Amino acid sequence: MGIDNRIGIGLMGLGVVGSGVAKALLEKAGQLTKQAGGTLVLEKVLVADIDKHRPVQMAPGLLTQDPRRILDSPNIGIVVELIGGEDPAAAYIESALKNGKHVVTANKDVMAKFGPELLQLADQNGVEILYEASVGGGIPLLLPLKQSLAANDISSIRAIINGTTNYILTKMSQDGLSFHIALREAQEEGYAEADPAKDVEGLDAAYKLAILATSAFQSTVRPSDIYCQGITRLGEADFLHARELGYEIKLLAIAKKTEGAIEARVHPVLIPADYLLAKVTGVFNAIQIEGDLVGQVLFYGKGAGSLPTASAVVADIIAVARSIRGPRPEPMPAGTVVQDMVPVKPIFDLVSPYYLRMNIADQPGVLAQIAHVLGDRSISIASVIQKRADPVTHSAEIVIMTHPAREQFMDDALAEMAKLSVVREICNFIRVEG
Ligand code: HSE
To answer: Is the CB of 303 under 6 A from ligand 1?
Structure first.
C-alpha cells in the first residue's frame, strides 16, 4: 500500500479507554487496514506525563504533552479525543474541527452539552465528528439510530445506561442489601468512582440520555432539560414491596416524543418484573428503542470498560477512514445535524401511575383522610396495602398504588399529606413505568 494510503491518527488521552484504543490500533493493524481502506497510522499520542509507566508499549517519539503537535499536524487527519470531561477536551475538539480534522470522541460531557454546535461546526468545515462510545460503551446505538432505524419515527427510548447504579440496584433487590452497603461493594469491585455522585444521582445517565434523545428525535435535548433523580432514597422496604407487587426497581433514562413535545427524565421506576429491562442485572446496560415501523428493539451489552468502549471508538475511526478513502466524501448521514427545536416538557406535566410508601398512625379514619387528599386532586387509588404495624408506636407502613395521575397534582398531594398529623413520614414515592 503506497504512502498516500495512510491515514494519520492523533490520540488525545491514554487512560483506560485510550489504552484500549492504542492496543487495538497497534495489535489489529492488518485487519483494520483492510476495513478502513487505508493504513491507520498512530502519529502522536497526547499524555499528561511522558515519563509515566504505561501497560501499552509505545515508541518514545510517539508521546507528546503538547496538544498543538496533534491539532496543527498536517499528517493527522483524524483526532481521537479520549481525555474526558469538558475542559480542555471541548476546546481541543473545536480546534481540530476548525483545522479540518475529523474527530472521534467518547466524551459524553462535551457531546451532551455542545453536540449540536459541534455537529454544525463539523458540517461547516466539511469533516465528521463521530461519538458512538459516548453512550453505552461498546453497544452500537448512534449509528443504528442514524442508519438502520432511519426509516422510523422514534417514539420512545427506555434505557439502563449507568452500569454502577444497575449493579447497586441488583444487589439491593437480589441480596437485600442497603444502598450504602451495595455502593461500597460496587466501589470495591472497581465499578463506582471514589466520588460516585454522578452515577448515583443520575447525572451520568442524564448526559447519555441527552445525546441519545437529540440523535433519536433530531431535536436538541440538553442535560439541563432533563429531570434527574438518583437512587439514594431507595430503601430495602421498597424492594420488598415492589417484588410482592410484581415489579423490579430500575434507574431508567426515559425519553418520549409526543405531539409537539419531548419528555426526558432519569429516575427510579417500578417496572413489571417480566419486562426484559427488569431482567437486566449487574453492570450491564440495555437500551430499548421504539419506532413506528420496527416496533421495539433492545440493545444490550457492556456500557463501559476499556475494550468495549475501544470497540466503538475504533469502529468510528474506521467509518471516518472509509469516508476519507472513498471516491468522494460521503454526505453527512441523516440525523447528524439537529433539525428541530421541539420543547422539552417540565416534569410537572408528566402523567404516570405512582407507588407511595408512608408511615402513618395506625388508627381509624387515617386512610379516609389520605384518600380525601388524593381524591381532591383527581388522583385515583388502584390499591392500598398495609404493612408492618408497630403496636408500640401505634404506626403502620402503607403502600398506595395510584392510577395515572399528573405529577403536579401528586406533588401537591404529597405536600398536603405531609401536613396531616396522622402521616408520620412519607418514605418514598416512585413512578411506575409500563
Ligand atoms: N460510570 C458509568 C457507568 C460508566 O457506571 O455506567 C461511564 O460512562
So the answer is: yes
Burial, 393: exposed, middle or buried (Cβ in 10 Å; 0-12, 13-18, 19+)? exposed
**Catalytic option among 44, 101, 113, 208:** 208
- Which CATH number goes with the domain that contains 385? 3.30.70.260
> Is 283 within a domain?
yes
Count CA atoms closer than 13 A to 222's CA, side-chain side: 8
Give tens-digit pLDDT for 283-326: 999 999 999 999 999 999 999 999 999 999 999 999 999 988 77
Average pLDDT over residues 148-167: 97
For the chain, the domain total comes to 3
Does residue 333 lie within any of the structural domains? Answer: no
- Give the helix ranges, DSSP H, for 202-283: 203-217, 236-244
199 ligand 1 Cβ < 6 A: yes
Question: Residue 363 is part of which domain span?
Answer: 347-432
Q: Say if residue 151 is in the same domain as residue 97.
A: no
pTM for the model: 0.94
CA of 27 to the centre of ligand 1 (A): 26
Same domain? 294 vs 149 = yes
CB of residue 138 inside a 6 A radius of ligand 1? no
164 lines ligand 1 (CB under 6 A): yes
CA of 235 to the centre of ligand 1 (A): 23
201 with 267, same domain: the answer is yes
- Does one domain contain both 17 and 127? yes
Lowest mean pLDDT, pick from 15-29, 47-61, 141-155: 47-61
Helices (H), 41-154: 68-71, 89-98, 108-124, 142-146
Q: Give the span between the Cα atoms of 410 and 382, in whole angstroms.
A: 14
Bond into 55 cis (ω within 30): no
Centre of ligand 1 to C-alpha 193, Å, is 9
Is 208 catalytic? The answer is yes
